[in-house]
Design goal:
The chain has 144 residues and is of the alpha+beta class. The chain has one domain: Gcn5-related N-acetyltransferase (GNAT) (Aminopeptidase). It is 31% helix and 38% strand. The chain has a 6-stranded mixed beta sheet, with helices on both faces. The longest helix has 15 residues. The radius of gyration is 15 Å and the shape is globular. The mean pLDDT is 94.
């Protein structure tokens, strides 16, 4: 992801989330030394993105979003598989995230990749006070 992608990213973000990230939020992640931000394209169209932190041997998924017109085509799976592969190649042994309790589609996707539910962060999301479910995936000490 680069600043030139942000107009398309923001269009997807606004269509996809009741409380979207701001442009400043994405810019902060692009400047963050621990931050990693990648986009997916179909032809010339930006179709999705993934934003995560890598700190020591851990990856924390912050945002994985697919354009509404591209959902159900496997792009979310590809972005998550990319994050896991990228993390492994960089020596990460643990991947974690928070997901809204109500986000059943995302939770199902994460489970298919082997994530398990950990603790609950009560009222984690300030916009709705909804609980956040912490999901975790151990990558072990594998090398590729």
């Amino acid at each position: 992801m680069s600043p030139t992608d942000l107009a398309d990213v923001m269009a997807i973000e606004r269509e996809s989330h009741a409380h979207p990230w701001s442009v400043e939020g994405f810019l902060n992640e692009l400047r963050n030394p621990a931050g990693r931000s990648f986009v997916a394209h179909r032809g010339k169209c930006l179709t999705g993105y993934v934003v995560f932190w890598m700190i020591a041997d851990e990856t924390h998924l912050l945002n994985l979003t697919v354009h509404p017109d591209c959902r159900g085509c496997g792009l979310g799976k590809k972005l998550l598989a990319f994050l896991i592969s990228y993390s492994r190649r960089h020596g990460v042994t643990w991947v974690g995230l928070e997901v809204r309790r109500s986000n059943r589609l995302a939770t199902a996707l994460y489970r298919r990749f082997g994530f398990h539910e950990g603790r609950v962060r009560r009222a984690y999301y300030p916009d709705t006070r909804e609980d956040g479910i912490v999901m975790e995936l151990g990558l072990g000490h594998e090398t590729t």
